Every structure is written in C-alpha cells, then in structure tokens.
Amino acid sequence: AEYHHPPRQIEFAKMYLTNQVTGKRYIKKLVEQKLVDGWDDPRLVSISGLRRRGYTPESIKKFVDLCGISKSDSSADFAALEYCIREDLKPGCKRMLAVLHPLKLIIDNYPEGQVEMLEADNNLENPELGKRQIPFGRELWIEQDDFMEEPPKKYYRLFPGNEVRLMYAYFVKCVGFDKDEDGNITAVHVTYDPETKSGSGFTGRKVKGTIHWVHADSAVKVSARLYENIIDEEKGVYDENGDLNLNPHSLTVCEAYVEPELKEAKPFDRFQFVRNGYFCVDYKDSAPGAPVFNRIVGLKSSFKLPGKKK
After folding, report:
1. Residues spanned by the domain of 173
2. Beta-carbon neighbour count of residue 300 at 10 Å?
3. Range list of H helices, 43-171
C-alpha cells in the first residue's frame, strides 16, 4: 500500500559531557575491574548513577532543554548539569548543619553540662519550610579549615585573638588551642559573649566571619562521600594508549558530624549542608538510623547561564 504521508525517522546525535565517561564499553570496563561501585556508582553519568547521587528528573530535563537537541555530535559542560540541580534543589531543601572535617571547639566560659535550644531557619529563601530547634552547649564541632594558627590576610574565621559569629548562636573569641605530640591541633578554646545571641538585636559591634558548628554531645556521626570528576581534568579523558585518565581522588569519604534529626533521614532525602553543598541519602549503603550521605554538588558554580535568544 502507498501512503500519502509516509512516516519519517530522524536520528539525533550523541551529546558528550566534559571530562565524563559516557561510552558504555568504558563504563563496563570500569565496572568489571571494580574501579567503580557498579553501573550506579555516583561518579558516573549513567541515569542510575545520577539518580543514586541525588540528581532529580526535573534537573536532568532542564539540562537537556538548556543544551538543546542536535543532529551532529556535541559536547556540553558538566557545570551546566550542576547548575540545573542547584536551581532545582535551592528552594525546597532544608539547610542543615554538618561538619565534614571535625575539630573540637571548647567554650571555656560556657556552663558545663548546660544545653540550650536555638532557633534556626530551615530555608531563608522559603519561609514555608519553617524553623527548627538545634542544641547548643560548651563543646562543639567546627570545620578544621575554620581555624588557623597563623592566618593569611583576609582570613576572617577563627585564629588567636579573633572573634567570629557561631551561626544561630553567639560571638566567640579565640583564646587558645591544644596540640598533640605531632603538632596537630586537637582543640580550639574560645570565650563567648552572652549579649550577642542571634536574634537578640545586639548591635554593639560587628564581626566579619560566621562559621557553622554542631553540638558535640548531640551530633550524630555519619559517613559523607565527596565526589570529584572521575576523569583527571588536567590530563584529559584519554591517555596516549586510549585508556582513561582516572582521577585517584574522585572519591573522599569523611566521618562527619550532623544535626541529630538527620539520623532518621531516608534514602533519597536531600538536604543542603550549610557551606558544604547539597547531599542525598544513599539508597544502597544506608541503614535505619545510619544514613550515608552522597554529595550531589557543591554550592559554588563557575557556570554562567547563556543569554536567551531573541
């Protein structure tokens, strides 16, 4: 039979992502050599890998719309996909306190054994998410890089004699620190000013630095995975023999401390860890009461959204 309007078939080309492994035979080789944790390893840009890492269907669709469809092979910046997931998660994620590389902070003049509950916004950009109460006491965990014994210029976090704000809490001033036998800093000592409590309306003085923290006695210890590109960006995707230039630092596992309510987080729950990025609970390795967090993406972006076509 003849058709007046015969069907047409249009094939669209492949789209590659910068410094990512997209070829199935290369991914298969990585899986077989156990260089990755299966086809859903969060470092891979397979659909299952992106899903496990925490990318949403909406962010992937937005990325495809942003890049467009072509009949010739093209390459897209992976930063564009990261931009799309940030935009998707920004309004709906609770912003939680989590310390990935912990260092003990001791408030010398805070009463021992006292714990107070402080109010924190779940998301400043979305008041509908409400507020929560977080515990605060004499001993806290802070990030290791929020203290320096000898800081460079324009370093506004903790160092001897400097004062900073503890997020949602008080101003604290560094009065000393402890070291172990190898010279590693094991604890930082500060004093706090009870007149400077967040929300009190205090205007007596200002500080340039604000750091986050978690209460040492209440915090929950969890595993947090930080991902970088699986390909070594400086060397390029392939070496002279056609093999992949793998990044030996594509996965870093941290023993982190998080707010107590995160202990009950479920697989695929997503949160922003303040100052550290967006994280998703791993469905494969988490257990009830022991979540494992995969970092989806950091907070900083070098990607610039192209101007709209007229």
Report:
1. 98-213
2. 8
3. 47-53, 57-67, 78-89
Last residue of a domain, one of 190, 213, 236: 213
Strand, helix or coil for residue 49:
helix
C-alpha distances (whole Å) from 273 to each of 224, 276, 297 are: 11, 5, 11
Name the domain boundary from 62, 89, 116.
89
Number of domains in the chain: 3
Q: What is the pLDDT of residues 122-148, one digit of tens each?
A: 999 999 999 999 999 999 999 999 999
Strand, helix or coil for residue 128: helix
Residue 229 within any structural domain of the chain: yes
CA angle 286, 287, 291 (to 5 degrees): 50
Q: For position 33, which CATH number holds?
A: 1.10.1160.10
What's the length of the chain? 310
Tokens standing for 176? 């000393």
- At residue 109, what are phi and psi to the nearest 5 degrees? -100, 15
Geometric angle at alpha carbon 160, from 120 and 96, rounded to 5°: 20
Over the stretch 31-41, which tens digit does the pLDDT of each residue have? Answer: 999 999 999 99
Is 247 inside any structural domain? Answer: yes
Note the pLDDT tens digit of each residue in 2-17.
777 878 887 777 888 9
Q: What is the pTM of this model?
A: 0.91
Residue type at 61 in one-letter notation: K
115-153 residues labelled b (16+ CB within 10 A) or e (exposed): eeebebebbeeeeebeeeebbbbbebbbbeebbbeeeee
- Are the beta carbons of 62 and 84 closer than 8 angstroms? yes
The CA–CA distances, whole Å, from 297 to 90, 203, 251, 303 equal 12, 36, 13, 13
Tell me how far CA of residue 17 lies from CA of 64, 85, 162, in angstroms.
Answer: 12, 15, 44
Distance CA 161, CA 190 (A): 9
